[in-house]
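Q: Please design a sequence for this.
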Protein backbone atom coordinates (compact mmCIF):
# COMPACT_ATOMS: atom_id res chain seq x y z
CA UNK A 1 0.00 0.00 0.00
CA UNK A 2 1.26 3.50 -0.73
CA UNK A 3 1.84 6.03 2.04
CA UNK A 4 0.43 9.56 1.89
CA UNK A 5 1.19 12.65 4.03
CA UNK A 6 0.17 16.31 3.84
CA UNK A 7 0.97 19.43 5.90
CA UNK A 8 -0.36 22.97 6.03
CA UNK A 9 0.60 25.30 8.86
CA UNK A 10 3.06 27.87 10.13
CA UNK A 11 6.10 25.60 10.23
CA UNK A 12 8.22 24.29 7.37
CA UNK A 13 6.36 21.44 5.64
CA UNK A 14 9.30 19.27 4.54
CA UNK A 15 10.40 18.05 7.99
CA UNK A 16 6.92 16.68 8.73
CA UNK A 17 6.58 15.18 5.24
CA UNK A 18 9.82 13.23 5.62
CA UNK A 19 9.06 12.30 9.24
CA UNK A 20 5.55 11.14 8.31
CA UNK A 21 6.72 9.06 5.36
CA UNK A 22 9.35 7.46 7.58
CA UNK A 23 6.61 6.38 9.98
CA UNK A 24 4.76 4.79 7.03
CA UNK A 25 7.77 2.80 5.76
CA UNK A 26 6.39 -0.37 7.36
CA UNK A 27 3.70 -0.36 4.63
CA UNK A 28 6.33 -1.31 2.08
CA UNK A 29 7.34 0.91 -0.85
CA UNK A 30 9.75 1.21 -3.77
CA UNK A 31 10.01 5.00 -4.26
CA UNK A 32 9.16 8.27 -2.53
CA UNK A 33 8.55 11.96 -3.23
CA UNK A 34 7.38 15.31 -1.86
CA UNK A 35 5.89 18.51 -3.27
CA UNK A 36 6.14 21.87 -1.45
CA UNK A 37 4.79 25.32 -2.43
CA UNK A 38 7.67 27.76 -1.92
CA UNK A 39 5.64 30.96 -2.26
CA UNK A 40 5.90 31.13 -6.03
CA UNK A 41 5.78 27.61 -7.45
CA UNK A 42 5.37 23.98 -6.40
CA UNK A 43 8.70 22.18 -6.04
CA UNK A 44 8.53 18.42 -6.67
CA UNK A 45 11.33 16.10 -5.55
CA UNK A 46 11.08 12.34 -5.93
CA UNK A 47 13.34 9.32 -6.08
CA UNK A 48 13.18 5.59 -6.66
CA UNK A 49 14.40 3.48 -3.75
CA UNK A 50 14.34 4.16 -0.04
CA UNK A 51 13.53 7.44 1.68
CA UNK A 52 17.26 7.84 2.26
CA UNK A 53 17.67 8.36 -1.51
CA UNK A 54 15.08 11.16 -1.43
CA UNK A 55 16.72 12.78 1.60
CA UNK A 56 20.08 12.61 -0.18
CA UNK A 57 18.54 14.16 -3.29
CA UNK A 58 17.16 17.20 -1.42
CA UNK A 59 20.15 17.63 0.86
CA UNK A 60 21.55 21.14 0.42
CA UNK A 61 18.40 22.45 -1.17
CA UNK A 62 15.54 21.30 1.09
CA UNK A 63 12.26 22.65 -0.33
CA UNK A 64 11.11 25.63 1.77
CA UNK A 65 7.39 26.22 2.26
CA UNK A 66 4.51 25.98 4.70
CA UNK A 67 2.32 23.61 2.69
CA UNK A 68 3.17 20.30 1.03
CA UNK A 69 2.36 16.67 0.32
CA UNK A 70 4.42 13.48 0.29
CA UNK A 71 4.14 9.87 -0.87
CA UNK A 72 5.79 6.45 -0.63
CA UNK A 73 4.85 4.32 -3.64
CA UNK A 74 3.99 0.60 -3.70
CA UNK A 75 3.93 0.14 -7.47
CA UNK A 76 0.82 -1.30 -9.11
CA UNK A 77 0.90 0.30 -12.59
CA UNK A 78 4.36 1.11 -13.95
CA UNK A 79 7.68 -0.11 -12.63
CA UNK A 80 9.49 1.61 -9.75
CA UNK A 81 11.30 4.68 -11.17
CA UNK A 82 11.85 8.39 -10.49
CA UNK A 83 9.28 9.29 -13.14
CA UNK A 84 6.63 6.88 -11.81
CA UNK A 85 7.15 8.02 -8.22
CA UNK A 86 4.55 10.38 -6.77
CA UNK A 87 3.66 13.28 -6.50
CA UNK A 88 2.39 13.66 -10.04
CA UNK A 89 1.70 17.00 -11.76
CA UNK A 90 -0.33 18.25 -14.70
CA UNK A 91 1.31 19.79 -17.77
CA UNK A 92 1.69 23.22 -16.13
CA UNK A 93 3.00 22.08 -12.74
CA UNK A 94 0.21 24.07 -11.11
CA UNK A 95 -1.64 20.97 -9.87
CA UNK A 96 -0.08 18.15 -7.89
CA UNK A 97 -1.60 14.90 -6.56
CA UNK A 98 -0.61 11.88 -4.47
CA UNK A 99 -2.66 8.69 -4.58
CA UNK A 100 -3.02 5.34 -2.84
CA UNK A 101 -5.16 2.78 -4.68
CA UNK A 102 -6.06 1.85 -8.26
CA UNK A 103 -7.89 3.97 -10.85
CA UNK A 104 -9.67 1.31 -12.87
CA UNK A 105 -10.65 3.51 -15.84
CA UNK A 106 -7.34 5.34 -16.16
CA UNK A 107 -6.54 4.02 -19.65
CA UNK A 108 -9.72 5.43 -21.24
CA UNK A 109 -9.27 8.76 -19.42
CA UNK A 110 -5.62 8.91 -20.48
CA UNK A 111 -6.49 8.37 -24.14
CA UNK A 112 -9.02 11.22 -24.05
CA UNK A 113 -6.58 13.57 -22.30
CA UNK A 114 -3.79 12.77 -24.76
CA UNK A 115 -6.18 13.61 -27.61
CA UNK A 116 -6.75 16.97 -25.90
CA UNK A 117 -3.00 17.59 -25.96
CA UNK A 118 -1.94 16.56 -22.47
CA UNK A 119 1.59 15.22 -22.27
CA UNK A 120 2.22 12.38 -19.83
CA UNK A 121 5.56 11.74 -18.19
CA UNK A 122 4.86 8.50 -16.29
CA UNK A 123 3.28 5.04 -16.79
CA UNK A 124 1.07 5.42 -13.73
CA UNK A 125 -2.71 5.52 -13.36
CA UNK A 126 -2.30 8.41 -10.89
CA UNK A 127 -0.89 10.98 -13.33
CA UNK A 128 -4.22 10.90 -15.17
CA UNK A 129 -5.84 12.56 -12.14
CA UNK A 130 -3.49 15.59 -12.28
CA UNK A 131 -4.17 16.18 -15.98
CA UNK A 132 -7.91 15.66 -15.48
CA UNK A 133 -7.86 18.34 -12.76
CA UNK A 134 -6.03 20.71 -15.12
CA UNK A 135 -8.61 19.97 -17.84
CA UNK A 136 -11.59 20.57 -15.54
CA UNK A 137 -10.23 23.59 -13.65
CA UNK A 138 -12.25 26.76 -14.37
CA UNK A 139 -10.92 28.90 -11.54
CA UNK A 140 -12.45 27.00 -8.60
CA UNK A 141 -10.01 24.39 -7.16
CA UNK A 142 -12.59 22.61 -4.98
CA UNK A 143 -15.21 22.47 -7.73
CA UNK A 144 -12.64 21.06 -10.15
CA UNK A 145 -11.69 18.32 -7.67
CA UNK A 146 -15.35 17.36 -7.36
CA UNK A 147 -15.61 17.13 -11.14
CA UNK A 148 -12.57 14.85 -11.19
CA UNK A 149 -14.15 12.55 -8.60
CA UNK A 150 -17.23 12.15 -10.81
CA UNK A 151 -15.07 10.76 -13.58
CA UNK A 152 -12.71 8.29 -11.90
CA UNK A 153 -13.59 4.71 -10.93
CA UNK A 154 -11.64 2.58 -8.49
CA UNK A 155 -10.20 2.64 -4.99
CA UNK A 156 -8.27 5.69 -3.85
CA UNK A 157 -7.12 8.03 -1.17
CA UNK A 158 -6.05 11.32 -2.77
CA UNK A 159 -4.49 14.62 -1.69
CA UNK A 160 -4.48 17.55 -4.12
CA UNK A 161 -2.42 20.77 -4.05
CA UNK A 162 -2.77 23.78 -6.36
CA UNK A 163 -0.42 26.71 -7.02
CA UNK A 164 -3.51 28.88 -7.54
CA UNK A 165 -4.79 28.08 -4.00
CA UNK A 166 -1.58 27.71 -1.96
CA UNK A 167 -3.33 27.95 1.41
CA UNK A 168 -5.25 24.69 1.22
CA UNK A 169 -4.99 20.96 0.56
CA UNK A 170 -8.00 18.98 -0.65
CA UNK A 171 -8.25 15.29 0.18
CA UNK A 172 -10.75 12.49 -0.28
CA UNK A 173 -10.98 8.69 -0.10
CA UNK A 174 -12.80 5.69 -1.51
CA UNK A 175 -11.96 2.19 -0.11
CA UNK A 176 -8.52 3.35 1.10
CA UNK A 177 -7.77 4.98 4.47
CA UNK A 178 -7.12 8.70 5.07
CA UNK A 179 -6.95 10.58 8.36
CA UNK A 180 -6.67 14.29 9.20
CA UNK A 181 -4.62 15.30 12.24
CA UNK A 182 -5.73 18.46 14.04
CA UNK A 183 -2.89 20.64 15.28
CA UNK A 184 -2.59 24.15 16.71
CA UNK A 185 -2.27 26.50 13.75
CA UNK A 186 -1.35 23.54 11.59
CA UNK A 187 -3.11 20.47 10.24
CA UNK A 188 -1.87 17.11 8.95
CA UNK A 189 -3.10 14.49 6.47
CA UNK A 190 -1.93 10.87 6.35
CA UNK A 191 -2.83 7.40 5.06
CA UNK A 192 -2.48 6.03 8.53
CA UNK A 193 -2.27 7.19 12.12
CA UNK A 194 1.43 6.31 12.74
CA UNK A 195 2.45 9.24 10.49
CA UNK A 196 0.82 11.89 12.69
CA UNK A 197 0.69 10.29 16.14
CA UNK A 198 3.75 12.22 17.40
CA UNK A 199 2.21 15.55 16.27
CA UNK A 200 -1.38 15.15 17.41
CA UNK A 201 -3.78 12.52 18.74
CA UNK A 202 -6.88 14.46 17.68
CA UNK A 203 -8.03 13.21 14.29
CA UNK A 204 -10.84 13.03 11.80
CA UNK A 205 -11.12 9.60 10.15
CA UNK A 206 -12.48 10.28 6.65
CA UNK A 207 -15.28 8.06 5.35
CA UNK A 208 -15.74 6.99 1.73
CA UNK A 209 -16.91 9.86 -0.46
CA UNK A 210 -16.07 12.63 2.01
CA UNK A 211 -14.05 15.58 0.70
CA UNK A 212 -11.96 17.68 3.11
CA UNK A 213 -10.57 21.16 2.47
CA UNK A 214 -7.67 21.50 4.92
CA UNK A 215 -6.14 24.88 5.82
CA UNK A 216 -3.73 25.70 8.66
CA UNK A 217 -6.56 26.77 10.95
CA UNK A 218 -9.63 25.01 9.53
CA UNK A 219 -10.87 21.67 8.20
CA UNK A 220 -14.05 21.79 6.11
CA UNK A 221 -15.57 18.37 5.37
CA UNK A 222 -18.44 17.71 2.95
CA UNK A 223 -19.85 14.78 1.03
CA UNK A 224 -19.06 14.41 -2.67
CA UNK A 225 -21.91 16.78 -3.61
CA UNK A 226 -20.61 19.51 -1.27
CA UNK A 227 -23.12 19.03 1.57
CA UNK A 228 -21.34 19.71 4.91
CA UNK A 229 -20.67 16.66 7.09
CA UNK A 230 -20.44 16.78 10.88
CA UNK A 231 -17.49 14.74 12.14
CA UNK A 232 -16.62 13.62 15.65
CA UNK A 233 -12.98 14.01 16.67
CA UNK A 234 -11.33 10.59 17.16
CA UNK A 235 -8.80 10.69 20.01
CA UNK A 236 -6.03 8.18 19.20
CA UNK A 237 -4.97 6.24 22.29
CA UNK A 238 -2.74 3.69 20.49
CA UNK A 239 0.99 3.59 20.91
CA UNK A 240 3.06 3.96 17.72
CA UNK A 241 3.68 0.22 17.27
CA UNK A 242 -0.01 -0.67 17.59
CA UNK A 243 -0.85 2.10 15.13
CA UNK A 244 1.33 0.46 12.41
CA UNK A 245 -0.85 -2.62 12.71
CA UNK A 246 -4.02 -0.58 12.37
CA UNK A 247 -4.96 -1.47 15.91
CA UNK A 248 -4.55 -5.21 15.30
CA UNK A 249 -2.22 -7.12 17.63
CA UNK A 250 -0.21 -8.61 14.75
CA UNK A 251 0.41 -7.89 11.07
CA UNK A 252 -0.88 -11.40 10.30
CA UNK A 253 -4.31 -10.65 11.80
CA UNK A 254 -4.38 -7.27 10.04
CA UNK A 255 -3.56 -8.97 6.72
CA UNK A 256 -6.17 -11.70 7.28
CA UNK A 257 -8.73 -8.92 7.69
CA UNK A 258 -7.39 -7.03 4.66
CA UNK A 259 -8.37 -9.93 2.41
CA UNK A 260 -11.78 -8.54 1.32
CA UNK A 261 -10.08 -5.35 0.09
CA UNK A 262 -7.05 -7.18 -1.34
CA UNK A 263 -9.28 -9.57 -3.30
CA UNK A 264 -11.53 -6.70 -4.46
CA UNK A 265 -8.53 -4.64 -5.60
CA UNK A 266 -7.12 -7.63 -7.51
CA UNK A 267 -10.43 -8.65 -9.06
CA UNK A 268 -12.45 -5.51 -9.87
CA UNK A 269 -10.28 -4.01 -12.65
CA UNK A 270 -10.32 -7.37 -14.43
CA UNK A 271 -14.09 -7.98 -14.58
CA UNK A 272 -15.71 -6.52 -17.72
CA UNK A 273 -18.36 -3.91 -16.91
CA UNK A 274 -21.10 -6.14 -18.40
CA UNK A 275 -20.03 -9.06 -16.19
CA UNK A 276 -19.76 -11.29 -19.24
CA UNK A 277 -15.99 -11.80 -19.33
CA UNK A 278 -12.66 -11.43 -17.62
CA UNK A 279 -10.29 -8.80 -19.04
CA UNK A 280 -6.54 -9.35 -18.68
CA UNK A 281 -5.21 -6.15 -20.28
CA UNK A 282 -1.67 -7.22 -19.39
CA UNK A 283 -1.90 -10.40 -21.55
CA UNK A 284 -3.85 -9.85 -24.82
CA UNK A 285 -3.71 -13.62 -25.59
CA UNK A 286 -5.28 -15.09 -28.76
CA UNK A 287 -6.76 -18.50 -29.64
CA UNK A 288 -3.71 -19.20 -31.78
CA UNK A 289 -1.37 -18.34 -28.87
CA UNK A 290 -3.18 -20.66 -26.45
CA UNK A 291 -3.48 -23.47 -29.02
CA UNK A 292 0.30 -23.33 -29.42
CA UNK A 293 0.73 -24.85 -25.92
CA UNK A 294 0.60 -28.58 -25.25
CA UNK A 295 1.21 -28.22 -21.50
CA UNK A 296 1.28 -25.64 -18.72
CA UNK A 297 3.60 -25.90 -15.74
CA UNK A 298 2.79 -24.10 -12.50
CA UNK A 299 5.87 -23.92 -10.27
CA UNK A 300 6.17 -22.25 -6.84
CA UNK A 301 7.05 -22.74 -3.17
CA UNK A 302 5.05 -23.01 0.04
CA UNK A 303 1.74 -21.23 0.04
CA UNK A 304 2.23 -20.14 -3.56
CA UNK A 305 2.62 -23.83 -4.48
CA UNK A 306 -0.66 -24.58 -2.75
CA UNK A 307 -2.27 -21.82 -4.79
CA UNK A 308 -0.76 -23.44 -7.89
CA UNK A 309 -2.50 -26.72 -7.10
CA UNK A 310 -5.84 -24.92 -7.08
CA UNK A 311 -4.84 -23.12 -10.26
CA UNK A 312 -4.21 -26.48 -11.93
CA UNK A 313 -7.74 -27.59 -11.10
CA UNK A 314 -9.22 -24.35 -12.45
CA UNK A 315 -7.28 -24.30 -15.70
CA UNK A 316 -7.77 -27.99 -16.51
CA UNK A 317 -11.47 -27.91 -15.63
CA UNK A 318 -12.26 -24.75 -17.59
CA UNK A 319 -9.85 -24.97 -20.56
CA UNK A 320 -8.89 -28.69 -20.78
CA UNK A 321 -5.22 -27.72 -21.21
CA UNK A 322 -2.99 -30.18 -19.27
CA UNK A 323 -1.32 -28.59 -16.24
CA UNK A 324 1.54 -29.95 -14.16
CA UNK A 325 2.31 -28.39 -10.76
CA UNK A 326 5.68 -28.71 -9.12
CA UNK A 327 7.60 -27.47 -6.09
CA UNK A 328 10.26 -25.09 -7.39
CA UNK A 329 13.12 -26.71 -5.46
CA UNK A 330 12.29 -30.09 -7.04
CA UNK A 331 11.37 -28.94 -10.54
CA UNK A 332 14.86 -28.46 -11.93
CA UNK A 333 16.08 -31.87 -10.79
CA UNK A 334 13.34 -33.88 -12.43
CA UNK A 335 14.63 -33.36 -16.00
CA UNK A 336 11.33 -31.64 -16.78
CA UNK A 337 9.97 -32.06 -20.29
CA UNK A 338 9.95 -28.43 -21.41
CA UNK A 339 10.01 -26.92 -24.91
CA UNK A 340 8.56 -24.02 -26.87
CA UNK A 341 5.12 -25.60 -26.59
CA UNK A 342 5.25 -25.22 -22.80
CA UNK A 343 3.80 -22.30 -20.86
CA UNK A 344 5.65 -21.93 -17.55
CA UNK A 345 3.69 -20.10 -14.86
CA UNK A 346 5.49 -19.16 -11.65
CA UNK A 347 3.65 -17.90 -8.57
CA UNK A 348 5.43 -15.83 -5.94
CA UNK A 349 4.17 -13.19 -3.48
CA UNK A 350 7.59 -11.62 -3.00
CA UNK A 351 8.82 -12.21 -6.54
CA UNK A 352 12.22 -12.90 -4.96
CA UNK A 353 12.11 -16.60 -3.96
CA UNK A 354 15.36 -18.07 -5.24
CA UNK A 355 14.02 -21.56 -5.94
CA UNK A 356 11.17 -20.15 -7.99
CA UNK A 357 13.41 -17.69 -9.85
CA UNK A 358 15.85 -20.49 -10.66
CA UNK A 359 13.04 -22.70 -11.98
CA UNK A 360 11.80 -19.81 -14.12
CA UNK A 361 15.27 -19.26 -15.62
CA UNK A 362 15.71 -23.00 -16.28
CA UNK A 363 12.37 -23.20 -18.08
CA UNK A 364 13.34 -20.24 -20.27
CA UNK A 365 16.67 -21.91 -21.06
CA UNK A 366 14.68 -24.97 -22.21
CA UNK A 367 12.51 -22.84 -24.50
CA UNK A 368 9.33 -22.28 -22.49
CA UNK A 369 7.30 -19.10 -22.70
CA UNK A 370 6.75 -17.72 -19.23
CA UNK A 371 4.19 -15.93 -17.07
CA UNK A 372 4.66 -14.72 -13.48
CA UNK A 373 1.88 -14.13 -10.96
CA UNK A 374 3.39 -11.94 -8.25
CA UNK A 375 2.54 -9.26 -5.70
CA UNK A 376 5.62 -7.08 -6.11
CA UNK A 377 5.99 -4.82 -9.14
CA UNK A 378 9.51 -4.81 -10.50
CA UNK A 379 10.60 -7.86 -8.47
CA UNK A 380 13.27 -10.19 -9.85
CA UNK A 381 10.67 -12.74 -10.97
CA UNK A 382 8.48 -10.02 -12.51
CA UNK A 383 11.46 -8.79 -14.51
CA UNK A 384 12.60 -12.28 -15.56
CA UNK A 385 9.23 -13.51 -16.84
CA UNK A 386 8.03 -12.73 -20.37
CA UNK A 387 4.63 -11.68 -18.99
CA UNK A 388 3.35 -10.69 -15.53
CA UNK A 389 -0.01 -10.63 -13.79
CA UNK A 390 0.05 -8.69 -10.53
CA UNK A 391 -1.98 -9.51 -7.46
CA UNK A 392 -2.84 -6.16 -5.86
CA UNK A 393 -2.81 -7.36 -2.24
CA UNK A 394 -0.54 -4.60 -0.97
CA UNK A 395 2.59 -5.40 1.04
CA UNK A 396 2.40 -8.62 3.05
CA UNK A 397 4.52 -8.13 6.18
CA UNK A 398 3.76 -11.25 8.25
CA UNK A 399 5.88 -14.30 7.41
CA UNK A 400 2.73 -16.42 7.15
CA UNK A 401 1.14 -15.68 3.81
CA UNK A 402 -2.62 -15.05 3.91
CA UNK A 403 -3.89 -12.27 1.63
CA UNK A 404 -1.30 -13.27 -0.97
CA UNK A 405 -2.83 -16.77 -1.08
CA UNK A 406 -6.43 -15.63 -1.57
CA UNK A 407 -5.44 -13.06 -4.19
CA UNK A 408 -3.38 -15.75 -5.97
CA UNK A 409 -6.43 -18.03 -6.01
CA UNK A 410 -8.68 -15.30 -7.36
CA UNK A 411 -6.08 -14.46 -10.01
CA UNK A 412 -5.74 -18.12 -11.06
CA UNK A 413 -9.52 -18.36 -11.27
CA UNK A 414 -9.81 -15.24 -13.41
CA UNK A 415 -6.97 -16.45 -15.61
CA UNK A 416 -8.72 -19.79 -16.16
CA UNK A 417 -12.00 -18.04 -17.06
CA UNK A 418 -10.09 -15.64 -19.34
CA UNK A 419 -8.38 -18.56 -21.11
CA UNK A 420 -11.66 -20.51 -21.37
CA UNK A 421 -13.22 -17.47 -23.01
CA UNK A 422 -10.51 -17.44 -25.66
CA UNK A 423 -10.70 -21.22 -26.23
CA UNK A 424 -14.50 -21.13 -26.09
CA UNK A 425 -14.52 -24.03 -23.62
CA UNK A 426 -16.92 -22.26 -21.23
CA UNK A 427 -20.55 -21.43 -22.16
CA UNK A 428 -21.34 -17.68 -21.94
CA UNK A 429 -24.07 -18.23 -19.36
CA UNK A 430 -21.71 -20.31 -17.18
CA UNK A 431 -19.13 -17.52 -17.48
CA UNK A 432 -21.67 -14.94 -16.30
CA UNK A 433 -22.70 -17.24 -13.45
CA UNK A 434 -19.09 -17.67 -12.28
CA UNK A 435 -18.38 -13.94 -12.53
CA UNK A 436 -21.52 -13.19 -10.54
CA UNK A 437 -20.23 -15.52 -7.80
CA UNK A 438 -16.78 -13.94 -8.07
CA UNK A 439 -18.19 -10.49 -7.36
CA UNK A 440 -19.67 -11.74 -4.07
CA UNK A 441 -16.39 -13.16 -2.77
CA UNK A 442 -15.02 -10.04 -0.96
CA UNK A 443 -18.23 -9.66 1.05
CA UNK A 444 -18.29 -13.40 1.74
CA UNK A 445 -14.74 -13.29 3.04
CA UNK A 446 -15.89 -10.55 5.42
CA UNK A 447 -18.75 -12.82 6.49
CA UNK A 448 -16.38 -15.75 7.07
CA UNK A 449 -14.19 -13.48 9.20
CA UNK A 450 -17.08 -12.66 11.53
CA UNK A 451 -17.46 -16.21 12.86
CA UNK A 452 -14.31 -16.08 14.97
CA UNK A 453 -15.44 -17.08 18.50
CA UNK A 454 -15.80 -20.87 17.84
CA UNK A 455 -12.35 -20.81 16.22
CA UNK A 456 -10.81 -19.11 19.22
CA UNK A 457 -12.41 -21.83 21.39
CA UNK A 458 -10.99 -24.64 19.22
CA UNK A 459 -7.57 -22.99 19.34
CA UNK A 460 -7.69 -22.90 23.14
CA UNK A 461 -9.09 -26.45 23.43
CA UNK A 462 -6.80 -28.17 20.90
CA UNK A 463 -3.93 -25.70 20.69
CA UNK A 464 -1.67 -27.80 22.89
CA UNK A 465 -1.99 -30.96 20.84
CA UNK A 466 1.32 -31.78 19.21
CA UNK A 467 -0.23 -33.48 16.18
CA UNK A 468 -3.13 -32.32 14.01
CA UNK A 469 -4.39 -33.67 10.66
CA UNK A 470 -6.05 -31.77 7.83
CA UNK A 471 -7.92 -34.00 5.37
CA UNK A 472 -9.95 -33.46 2.23
CA UNK A 473 -10.46 -34.53 -1.35
CA UNK A 474 -10.01 -32.61 -4.61
CA UNK A 475 -9.95 -28.85 -3.96
CA UNK A 476 -10.55 -29.54 -0.26
CA UNK A 477 -7.24 -31.44 -0.16
CA UNK A 478 -5.43 -28.49 -1.76
CA UNK A 479 -6.85 -26.16 0.90
CA UNK A 480 -6.03 -28.72 3.60
CA UNK A 481 -2.37 -28.41 2.60
CA UNK A 482 -2.50 -24.66 3.06
CA UNK A 483 -4.26 -25.02 6.41
CA UNK A 484 -1.61 -27.44 7.67
CA UNK A 485 1.22 -25.15 6.58
CA UNK A 486 -0.34 -22.14 8.33
CA UNK A 487 -0.75 -24.06 11.59
CA UNK A 488 2.74 -25.60 11.39
CA UNK A 489 4.69 -22.46 10.62
CA UNK A 490 3.29 -20.16 13.29
CA UNK A 491 2.21 -22.49 16.14
CA UNK A 492 4.92 -25.14 15.67
CA UNK A 493 2.29 -27.91 15.99
CA UNK A 494 3.13 -30.89 13.76
CA UNK A 495 0.21 -30.49 11.37
CA UNK A 496 -0.11 -32.82 8.40
CA UNK A 497 -2.43 -32.58 5.41
CA UNK A 498 -3.53 -35.83 3.82
CA UNK A 499 -5.72 -36.87 0.92
CA UNK A 500 -8.77 -38.21 2.74
CA UNK A 501 -9.09 -41.17 0.39
CA UNK A 502 -5.45 -42.12 0.97
CA UNK A 503 -5.63 -42.39 4.79
CA UNK A 504 -6.53 -46.10 4.71
CA UNK A 505 -3.31 -46.84 2.84
CA UNK A 506 -1.16 -46.29 5.93
CA UNK A 507 -1.57 -42.97 7.68
CA UNK A 508 -4.80 -44.10 9.38
CA UNK A 509 -2.45 -45.96 11.76
CA UNK A 510 -1.67 -42.56 13.31
CA UNK A 511 -5.29 -41.68 14.01
CA UNK A 512 -5.86 -42.40 17.67
CA UNK A 513 -8.32 -41.29 20.30
CA UNK A 514 -8.44 -37.54 20.80
CA UNK A 515 -6.30 -36.51 17.86
CA UNK A 516 -7.75 -33.39 16.21
CA UNK A 517 -8.66 -33.82 12.53
CA UNK A 518 -9.77 -30.83 10.46
CA UNK A 519 -11.94 -32.30 7.71
CA UNK A 520 -12.79 -30.14 4.71
CA UNK A 521 -16.04 -31.24 3.05
CA UNK A 522 -17.09 -28.38 0.78
CA UNK A 523 -16.82 -30.16 -2.57
CA UNK A 524 -20.17 -31.71 -3.43
CA UNK A 525 -18.64 -33.76 -6.24
CA UNK A 526 -16.72 -35.86 -3.66
CA UNK A 527 -18.89 -35.23 -0.58
CA UNK A 528 -20.08 -38.80 0.06
CA UNK A 529 -16.54 -40.14 -0.29
CA UNK A 530 -15.19 -37.50 2.10
CA UNK A 531 -17.96 -38.36 4.55
CA UNK A 532 -16.89 -42.01 4.54
CA UNK A 533 -13.32 -40.94 5.33
CA UNK A 534 -14.60 -38.79 8.17
CA UNK A 535 -16.44 -41.82 9.54
CA UNK A 536 -13.16 -43.77 9.31
CA UNK A 537 -11.35 -41.30 11.60
CA UNK A 538 -14.34 -40.93 13.90
CA UNK A 539 -14.40 -44.71 14.30
CA UNK A 540 -10.86 -44.31 15.75
CA UNK A 541 -12.16 -41.66 18.18
CA UNK A 542 -10.50 -38.69 16.55
CA UNK A 543 -11.90 -35.23 17.34
CA UNK A 544 -13.20 -33.94 14.01
CA UNK A 545 -13.77 -30.28 13.15
CA UNK A 546 -15.62 -30.15 9.84
CA UNK A 547 -15.41 -27.28 7.36
CA UNK A 548 -18.65 -27.20 5.37
CA UNK A 549 -20.63 -25.04 2.97
CA UNK A 550 -23.45 -22.96 4.46
CA UNK A 551 -26.23 -25.19 3.12
CA UNK A 552 -24.74 -28.42 4.52
CA UNK A 553 -26.96 -29.73 7.35
CA UNK A 554 -25.61 -33.28 7.11
CA UNK A 555 -22.01 -33.01 8.26
CA UNK A 556 -22.83 -32.02 11.85
CA UNK A 557 -24.27 -35.52 12.42
CA UNK A 558 -20.83 -37.08 11.92
CA UNK A 559 -18.32 -34.63 13.42
CA UNK A 560 -17.65 -32.96 16.77
CA UNK A 561 -17.79 -29.39 15.50
CA UNK A 562 -18.70 -27.71 12.20
CA UNK A 563 -17.46 -24.40 10.85
CA UNK A 564 -19.57 -23.24 7.93
CA UNK A 565 -18.42 -20.94 5.15
CA UNK A 566 -20.72 -18.89 2.90
CA UNK A 567 -22.33 -20.66 -0.05
CA UNK A 568 -20.79 -20.09 -3.49
CA UNK A 569 -19.82 -22.07 -6.55
CA UNK A 570 -17.69 -25.00 -5.40
CA UNK A 571 -14.85 -23.78 -7.64
CA UNK A 572 -14.62 -20.60 -5.56
CA UNK A 573 -15.27 -22.06 -2.13
CA UNK A 574 -11.51 -22.70 -1.46
CA UNK A 575 -11.09 -18.92 -1.14
CA UNK A 576 -13.61 -18.98 1.71
CA UNK A 577 -12.69 -22.35 3.25
CA UNK A 578 -9.13 -21.17 3.95
CA UNK A 579 -10.34 -18.26 6.14
CA UNK A 580 -11.20 -20.34 9.24
CA UNK A 581 -7.95 -22.27 8.79
CA UNK A 582 -5.94 -19.02 8.80
CA UNK A 583 -7.76 -17.88 11.93
CA UNK A 584 -7.30 -21.29 13.60
CA UNK A 585 -3.55 -21.12 12.98
CA UNK A 586 -3.41 -17.54 14.26
CA UNK A 587 -5.28 -18.22 17.52
CA UNK A 588 -3.44 -21.51 18.10
CA UNK A 589 -0.17 -19.60 17.87
CA UNK A 590 -1.53 -17.02 20.34
CA UNK A 591 -2.59 -19.83 22.69
CA UNK A 592 0.93 -21.23 22.58
CA UNK A 593 2.59 -17.84 23.01
CA UNK A 594 4.40 -18.00 19.67
CA UNK A 595 5.84 -15.03 17.75
CA UNK A 596 3.07 -14.84 15.18
CA UNK A 597 4.60 -12.36 12.73
CA UNK A 598 8.16 -13.65 12.93
CA UNK A 599 8.06 -17.45 13.55
CA UNK A 600 11.32 -19.17 14.43
CA UNK A 601 13.67 -20.28 11.63
CA UNK A 602 11.60 -18.58 8.91
CA UNK A 603 12.01 -15.54 6.65
CA UNK A 604 9.35 -13.64 4.73
CA UNK A 605 11.19 -14.06 1.47
CA UNK A 606 13.49 -17.07 1.01
CA UNK A 607 16.21 -15.67 -1.21
CA UNK A 608 18.54 -18.66 -0.73
CA UNK A 609 18.20 -22.03 -2.49
C1 LIG B 1 3.79 -19.11 3.51
O1 LIG B 1 3.02 -18.84 4.67
C2 LIG B 1 5.27 -19.14 3.82
N1 LIG B 1 5.70 -17.99 4.45
C3 LIG B 1 6.11 -19.58 2.63
O2 LIG B 1 5.76 -20.92 2.37
C4 LIG B 1 5.96 -18.79 1.31
O3 LIG B 1 4.68 -19.02 0.76
C5 LIG B 1 7.01 -19.32 0.31
O4 LIG B 1 8.28 -19.06 0.84
C6 LIG B 1 6.89 -18.69 -1.07
O5 LIG B 1 7.11 -17.31 -0.97
P1 LIG B 1 6.77 -16.39 -2.27
O6 LIG B 1 5.30 -16.53 -2.52
O7 LIG B 1 7.19 -15.01 -1.87
O8 LIG B 1 7.57 -16.94 -3.42
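A: Design:
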Amino acid sequence: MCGIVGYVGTNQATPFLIEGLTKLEYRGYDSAGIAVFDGEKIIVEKSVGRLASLKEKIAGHVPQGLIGIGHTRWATHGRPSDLNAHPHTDCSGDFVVVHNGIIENYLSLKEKLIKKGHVFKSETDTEVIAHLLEELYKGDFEAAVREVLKRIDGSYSLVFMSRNDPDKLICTKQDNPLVIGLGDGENFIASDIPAIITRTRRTYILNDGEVAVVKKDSVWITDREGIPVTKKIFEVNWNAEAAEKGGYEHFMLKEIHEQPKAVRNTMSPRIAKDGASIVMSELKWTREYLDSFEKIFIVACGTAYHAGLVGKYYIEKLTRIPVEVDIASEFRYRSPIINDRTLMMVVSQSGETSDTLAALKESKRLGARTLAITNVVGSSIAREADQVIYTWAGPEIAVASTKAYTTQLITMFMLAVYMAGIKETLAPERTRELIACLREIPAQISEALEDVEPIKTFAKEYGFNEDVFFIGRSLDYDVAMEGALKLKEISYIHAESYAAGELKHGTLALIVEGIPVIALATQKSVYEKTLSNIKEVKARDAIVIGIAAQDDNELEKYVDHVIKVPQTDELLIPILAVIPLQLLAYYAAITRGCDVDKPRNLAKSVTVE
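Q: Thanks. Anything notable?
A: The mean pLDDT is 94. The radius of gyration is 25 Å.
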